[in-house]
Amino acid sequence: MRVFGLSVIVAGCACAASAFTAVNGINAFTEGGDARFEVISERGSGPREIWCAAAQYARVVLGEAPNTRIYIARAMGPSPQHNTKNSVSFTTQPDSTLASGPRPGDGGNYSVSLKTTGFSLRLAHAEGFCPRIIEEWLD
User: Fold this and answer.
1) What's the whole-model pTM score?
2) What three-state secondary structure class fits 2?
3) Concatenated DSSP letters of 86-120
4) Which of 19, 87, 98, 102 could hold 27 in an S-S bridge, CB 3.0 to 4.6 Å?
5) Could you write out the DSSP letters of every residue in 6-74?
6) Is 12 exposed, middle or buried (CB count within 10 Å of its CB: 0-12, 13-18, 19+)?
7) Is the pLDDT of residue 125 over 70?
8) 93: buried, middle or exposed (CB in 10 Å: 19+, 13-18, 0-12)?
């Protein structure tokens, strides 16, 4: 029983270690393809939190520049990798269909979408949704 318990803990740690956690606590995981990744929706998270995590994953893990566009490759729905969770898949290397998707301001709509495949934001715009972390040094 001890060996089984320890192996479950080690396996759990291995899964957690493969996740990227954004500054807001939302996790992102690599998905099929070099530039495709999945952001898991957590209780209380909305479009701003999901886009923040997508931007940080693209910048930190993929090394993308601030002017890179991030595209929704799969709209919000049940996660293909994580049971009982909803998620959105993103990419920074869209095919022609995704690349021609809607952008903020199209048709006078400036809402940030998670429901429209092909919707995109620039990395810098999306990262603007992240909470600011300010370190104060006290004397």
Assistant:
1) 0.82
2) helix
3) EEEEEESS--HHHHTS--TTGGG--PPPSSSTT-E
4) 19
5) HHHHHHHHHHHHTSEE-TTS-EEEE-SSTTEEEEE--TT--HHHHHHHHHHIIIIIS---TT-EEEEEE
6) exposed
7) yes
8) middle
* 99, two tokens: 């690349």
Q: CA separation (Å) from 81 to 2, 39, 62?
A: 29, 11, 20
Nearest CA to 23 out of 44, 51, 43 is that of 51
Structural tokens at position 123: 């990395």
Convert the pLDDT of each residue in 16-58 to its tens digit.
Answer: 447 899 999 999 999 987 799 999 999 989 999 999 999 999 9
